[in-house]
């Protein structure tokens, strides 16, 4: 137990972490092009927040939350998703008093007691955005466009955008009634969970993965059949914007998403090619009642969240892995304790010039140190043995050519600086 991690969570080790860093940099860059600003909310919140926002009949709240009582007997939950915390922060910090809309993004860990498998974990990472304060269809389209843009820039192919409208408090009751009437006529063919959902949250039946329920859902009345004029117009306008920029989508009347807070637009980005992991990489939509339900003024919102583990797995499976392990430019190889001190000072001087340096700290033999320098793929190895020390110079080995030169210690930093710039320029040409 002591040396094994709990089920469903991962260490991100050197060698993998560079992919994460590159993906994060890619995400931040693109968000800044769309003028979204980062928000960092806490990892845990009052449980009540998720009951109110994600919804008491959602799978997340019913089965998947990591909840506990803290020492002050407060009900606390590790965040299972990012939107609720952002909405809470928006209300609490009065961001509504700032310019509208607020365009916020986040990157960070989420926690769900899910069934672990490839692409599904108990601690996983999402990035996502929330636009609060605008109900304009162009914002829905911008959020969808952002997601597609981000994946396309990574070179991903075989993406599909599924799109639906889930209606609003005006038209949803009639739709829910139609769903209940329809499914009640086929109750014996529903799975047990859906029998239970029938009167509590019929929309969720559309989301069920059981074959019997899926077959029934395919024939069920659609939200568009029942959408009010306002929702129909909104949906048509969103589609108009997407058509304008050539973003292809498929209408999917069973797409309702697993969270209760959506109104009007709902969308998912799915990988059509099997990658061995789960194929839904991103989901989102509009949630015009969420801020109000969480105790704020009636404020419209729209956003999405995407899974980073899944995205990295898919990138790898398509041969598009990003991020490179970084190597130092210089390896310092001192041969005795006195030389180690000189190397230590030299390392500091080189790092002051922004040159990445590694030095031996284990008193290894010359052979072992050269092996280490090779493994690290440095451009230069600097040997300081007794001869060098007493003579006030160092032996510098250029690793690419094997050429060795004796350089006076007081000229060493400038020599390496020039050499490394040369290597870097050569690499870039
Ligand atoms: P959701 O918040 O459920 O709409 O999920 C949005 C995205 O987060 C999904 O499309 C996945 O990419 C990712 N995701 C959700 N749950 C998990 C999980 N348990 N493990 C890994 N990724 C997940």
From TrEMBL:
EC number(s) per entry: 6.1.1.21
PROSITE patterns: AA_TRNA_LIGASE_II (PS50862)
Main localization of the protein described in the UniProt heading: cytoplasm
UniProt keywords, alphabetically: Aminoacyl-tRNA synthetase, ATP-binding, Cytoplasm, Ligase, Nucleotide-binding, Protein biosynthesis
Subcellular location: Cytoplasm
GO molecular function annotations of the record: histidine-tRNA ligase activity
Domain Aminoacyl-transfer RNA synthetases class-II family profile: 20-328
Catalytic activity: tRNA(His) + L-histidine + ATP = L-histidyl-tRNA(His) + AMP + diphosphate + H(+)
SUPFAM superfamilies xrefs: Class II aaRS ABD-related (SSF52954), Class II aaRS and biotin synthetases (SSF55681)
HAMAP family for this protein: His_tRNA_synth
Cited PANTHER family: HISTIDINE--TRNA LIGASE, MITOCHONDRIAL-RELATED, HISTIDYL-TRNA SYNTHETASE
Subunit-level organization: Homodimer.
Family: Belongs to the class-II aminoacyl-tRNA synthetase family.
Protein name in UniProt: Histidine--tRNA ligase
Organism: Peptococcus simiae
